[in-house]
């Protein structure tokens, strides 16, 4: 059974884009996951294929209509589909590795990409969407966010990465940024690789890496030291896939 992604967007031509190359593209070719990009506009019913309208209460921009978005979801998602519906929006909860892991362990994802000012909140709530942001900046639409989310999920699908790379994933669970990496030559432009890495002393290397990880985390991301990324993801902190549900 493969992992299936459906993306609802006004710009289906943006997909697969970068997801068709490299690790994700090879995994797709091998049938480990699939991606279907569907045009929200196909769910419009009027002659002009209108998908949006002006915001109630006034203000700039346009809002995607709830009836059109709902019809787009109904057309794309078969009855009984267990995949969570994720709406990419700067208003969402920040995307973290804990949510990525939960999504990757499930049957796939349906991703809704907003454009314009946003999506009518009624359909967001009626469909139980998980609102997710990929960072504290505003993109021109959710498409790049959906690609980020899918890339992060796909690399965790069993069989996508080799065993050596899979083990690396553990390093993020420790809540620390990674230690710096070095390779040959041992001296470059007069700059030497830290001696301990050349020592062959595994325990010393491990201690040095741990210490570098903690230092860079303290400096760049002190929030990671006090905040568990395994909290506050999913709806109201609930796991996406409770232990007794098929994941
Ligand atoms: N759409 C626009 N900005 C976004 C962001 N930061 N994350 C997810 N979707 C978005």
TrEMBL record:
Database matches in InterPro entries: Alpha/beta_knot_MTases, tRNA_m1G_MeTrfase_C_sf, tRNA_m1G_MeTrfase_TrmD, tRNA_m1G_MTases_N, tRNA_MeTrfase_TRMD/TRM10
CDD domains membership: TrmD-like
Coiled coil region boundaries: none
Location in the cell: Cytoplasm
EC number(s) recorded for this UniProt protein: 2.1.1.228
Residues of the tRNA methyltransferase TRMD/TRM10-type domain: 6-226
Gene3D superfamilies listed in its UniProt record: 3.40.1280.10, tRNA(m1g37)methyltransferase, domain 2 (1.10.1270.20)
Main location: cytoplasm
A molecular function GO annotation: tRNA (guanine(37)-N1)-methyltransferase activity
Extent of Basic and acidic residues compositional bias: 209-224
GO biological process terms held by the UniProt record: methylation
Catalysed reaction equations from the record: guanosine(37) in tRNA + S-adenosyl-L-methionine = N(1)-methylguanosine(37) in tRNA + S-adenosyl-L-homocysteine + H(+)
Disordered: annotated segments: 209-247
Binding site for S-adenosyl-L-methionine: 114, 134-139
Similarity comment: Belongs to the RNA methyltransferase TrmD family.
Assembly description: Homodimer.
NCBIfam families: PRK00026.1, trmD
Role noted for this protein: Specifically methylates guanosine-37 in various tRNAs.
Protein name (Swiss-Prot/TrEMBL): tRNA (guanine-N(1)-)-methyltransferase
Gene: trmD
């Amino acid at each position: 059974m493969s992992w299936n992604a459906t993306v609802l967007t006004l710009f289906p031509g943006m997909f697969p884009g970068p997801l068709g190359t490299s690790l994700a593209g090879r995994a797709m070719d091998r049938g480990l996951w699939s991606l279907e990009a569907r045009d929200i506009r196909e769910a419009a019913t009027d002659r002009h294929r209108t998908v949006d309208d002006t915001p109630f209460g006034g203000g700039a921009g346009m809002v995607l209509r709830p009836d059109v978005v709902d019809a787009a979801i109904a057309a794309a998602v078969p009855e009984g589909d267990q995949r969570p519906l994720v709406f990419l929006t700067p208003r969402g909860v920040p995307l973290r590795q804990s949510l990525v892991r939960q999504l990757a362990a499930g049957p796939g994802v349906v991703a809704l990409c907003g454009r314009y000012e946003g999506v009518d909140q009624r359909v967001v709530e009626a469909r139980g969407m998980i609102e997710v942001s990929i960072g504290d900046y505003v993109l021109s639409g959710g498409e790049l966010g959906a690609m980020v989310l899918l890339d992060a999920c796909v690399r965790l699908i069993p069989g996508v990465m080799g065993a050596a790379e899979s083990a690396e994933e553990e390093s993020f669970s420790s809540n620390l940024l990674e230690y710096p990496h070095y390779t040959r030559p041992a001296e470059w432009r007069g700059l030497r690789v830290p001696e301990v890495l050349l020592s062959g002393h595994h325990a010393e290397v491990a201690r040095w890496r741990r210490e570098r990880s903690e230092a860079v985390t303290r400096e760049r991301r002190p929030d990671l030291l006090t905040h568990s990324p395994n909290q506050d993801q999913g709806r109201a902190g609930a796991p996406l896939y409770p232990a007794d549900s098929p994941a």
